[in-house]
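Input chain follows. Return structure tokens only.
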Amino acid sequence: MSSSSATRIRREEDVQKAYDIQVQAGLEGAARFTAVGVGLSIVAHYSWPAFRRQGRPFKALLLSLFCVAGVVFGAERALIAHEAQRRLEENNIRRVARFELTKQGIVPTETEIAKWREVNERQD
């Protein structure tokens, strides 16, 4: 397997993992924000007469806005955290590769780092 196809496969796996993380975090965020929205609606309904006079469609709109906000903020937060973690892991791998290649007397170019990575992935 060439290093470009290994890189492509690794990227596709990472994209799928990021997507799965976003979906899970989005669902959790939607549940959490919807619960907050329901709680606030109940409190507003019993403590504010103007809110009590509003119809069900308006109240449903407010709850759906809470739900959508939960999906968006939850998924974005999880994706940013995942990207930061991947960047840290990638930097650590590249640091080790540069160190090992320099120790062998090889200039650590992108091509050499990719070759080093392919060799070390086969060994693991």
